[in-house]
Records
---
Amino acid sequence: MTNQYQPIRVTLQEAKPFDDKPQTELIMRPPTTNDVIHSQQLGSRILADGSKHVDEAEAEAHLFANLTGTTREYIGSLAFYDYSQLGRAYDCFLLPVPQYAAKCALLFPGSVAPHSQSSEASVLQNSTTG
């Protein structure tokens, strides 16, 4: 099992072109605190009374774009199901590492690192033979 956060591979139900290439999946890297802060800055605006308002949906779209190496416009063009899948992938990163690994393996099986599968298999083999 992995002891750190790994990028998550999200398969898109509707392929969308990015940089003139159809994308059938996006890879979301683990977020940093600075990623979240930066996206909140991009999603904020100053109101008429001078107060600052953070549009959470806009901030999230900027965050997902940053974490997938795409653009805010691209994220906005995704089918809502695909956008929701990005939200599920992001939610995995909010869990402690052991829970992250289990949930990620369940929701995004294509993201499980090959070495972790083989090490789990060897643990199973050792437990049945030893």
---
Amino acid sequence: MSDLLLNQRNIVRKKEMIVKTGVWRNVGALGTHMIDCLRWMTQSEVEFVNGLLHTHVPQGAGETRDADDAFFIHGKMDNDTTFSVQLVSGVNHGLGSSIDVFGSEGTITLKNDKQLSFGRINEPLQKIEIPSHEAVPSHLSKEASAYYPAFHPFLEMIYDYIINDQADKDLPTIEDGHENQVIMDKI
């Protein structure tokens, strides 16, 4: 059997596995959220994008891995800002995730979904403290507690939209999801 035919069969099998199991690579699982965050922070659209996906650790924990454990995405927004989005995991000295946005008025960085910084032109980056206005319910698991501060306000926005027909400007829409997927398809 030719290598080309074997490769085509493997690609089809992998696509079927993703559809059946819902398994996505890191760029699909995390990169889409990072692109969405980028579009939201800059209030602009991606004009140009390129990326690199890589698997540093193809064997581990007794299994063969073909999912990327690192990705690097770079591009330009339609408001002339440039960006760098990356995730490096599964390696001995992983860097975690980062979103960096560079523009004529300054820089925005988000490291590991925890440290947000902003710096105006010719000024140092300043860490932005984001206060938590709600206490996390004590009955939630550690994992659920980590997502509660972001997820609960989102649910409140959905509730207001459904019950009161009031769409918050920060509530993501199906169109936002589609635009994110269009960008992901270019990487």
---
Amino acid sequence: MNKQFSQPVKVYLAAPFFSAQQIQKVEQLEQALEKNQTVESFFSPMRCQRPEGLAPDVAQYTPAWAKATMENDVKEVDKADVIVAITDFDGQDTDSGTAWELGYAIGTGKPTYLLRYIEDLPTNIMLTERNTAFFTHPEQVEHYDFLTSPSIPYDGKYQ
């Protein structure tokens, strides 16, 4: 999907953040998005594990916390113009949460952009074929023009 924008975009950053390595990748992408002049703002779920309005006595990893966190993430995807996702998951295919966020975004007509740090890792065709641009390094995201959204096709191995 190649959609053009007239003003800087709001980004939803979809990515796993369950290990130190994954957190480092998210932080690198956050820095790239902060430097990109065509990005107005971004939402990183890693930074919002306690949604606004959730009662202070609700413990993390309880059903009430899970529902509030999920609903908040859906609300943020809805508010975003585009989704930028890290698709490698510690040497495996995409994290299930990231895949869900991408599928939801595609279903609502939002453009998606994928970043895979491990270049030779196969990527599922369900992600690659509806994607606007495919990146292999955060610096590419830092310099990408989200306003014109030029297509950068996936050229790696398929799964």
